[in-house]
Amino acid sequence: MSKKNSYRPDEIKKLESQLAELKSQNEQLKKSARGGQVGKPSSWHKTLVAILLILGLVLAPFSVAAVWLNRQVVDTDAYVNTVGPLSEDPAIQTAVANYVTNQIFTQVNVTQKAKEALPPNAQFLAGPLSENMRGFVNTAVKKVVATDQFNKLWVQANRTAHNALTLVIVPKEGVVSTGGGQVTLNLGELMNQVKAQLRQRGITIFDNVDISGIDKQLVLFQSDTLAQVQSYVTFLNNLAIILPLLSLAFIAGAIALSPVRIRTTFWTGFGLAISMAVLLVALAIAKQYFLNTVISNQISSSAASAFYDTIAATLRLAARGFVLLGLILMLGAYFAGDSARAVQLRSRAINWVQALGAGYDFGKPGDWIANHKMGLRIAGLLIILLLIAFVSQITPLVVLTALIIYLLFLGAIEFFGRAPAHPLPQ
Questions:
Q1: What does the pLDDT average to over 81-107?
Q2: Residue 327: which domain range?
Q3: What backbone phi and psi angles, to 5 degrees, belong to 375?
Q4: Cβ contacts of residue 43 below 8 Å, gap of 6+?
Q5: Is residue 201 a part of any domain in this protein?
Q6: What is the mean pLDDT of the chain?
């Protein structure tokens, strides 16, 4: 007589689960062997994988920048939505108000007008009266730029001018121009509104000012290198689709051809995090160049900083998202590796999830899941990556959400995919 089996049901299920996992790994080894990937890879094979991976990682930050330009900057609606709130920024409002005030006062000698109106013994009051008038006009202009009406003017001007302001396309004649290495914003309509506002308050000294004779062009950027920057931006914008595809193709090819895919995935994550960190550093350097070289003397550094930070915010956020994605790939590759610690952690996690559903029988669907775990894991990962690729703005929150969804998916596979009670026929 054979000795009766003394294993408890939960121990039997645990052993069956481990057996199914071993079978899955054995199948993967067989597939690798059929693909000629078992054994020591040749030197050219390793070199090819390294070249593909390096190319993909080098192109990654340029791909992110190109997509950002195409979706967030060059697109009119996206650009206007980005810079629209700047009309409420105090630094921008102060810069516009000061420029309009100075231009209006260049057309009228307020001090001389005051001297003509004052008696001889009160001529000394002309200077203080002129300064008080300037302060009054500046306050009136600030009140105009603080209204919703100015916000509409700002949005409309930037909607018309966004191509020139982003240094992409040679601007058309009108609100904005880039002649002489400058990017300017036309404030003529705002000046007309200021004149009307002053007239309503009883200030008629500026009624005869001819707006057409005033320099209405507020110089935003001024640099001899604008034409060169335009060519770079245009080049990147034209490659907004091909660059990401090339980067993904190179990285995917490196992982697919690698004899040790887990290790290649780890280095992919490491390289991605480093390349995006370099992009963040480049953005910080570009900001200093922008403030020190490109910005005109008609715009304060605080206004210029607000403009740059607003435009670059989405690119900076995307770079941080990809840094996080790189770190997640590194951690994922580590836990999927064959080190003793990684195997132990995986086993504990799988056993814990399977213990949650102890006593449940999911029938044939559970048997099918148990026999297709590896395929389901790969399919789920590919779907998650595709969803991330088609998100309009990749942020750390998007990456974390995708990670949580994928972990829940892996947990569901282990929960429902128990080792079949009756092995499927071979």
A1: 83
A2: 10-68+235-416
A3: -60, -40
A4: none
A5: no
A6: 77
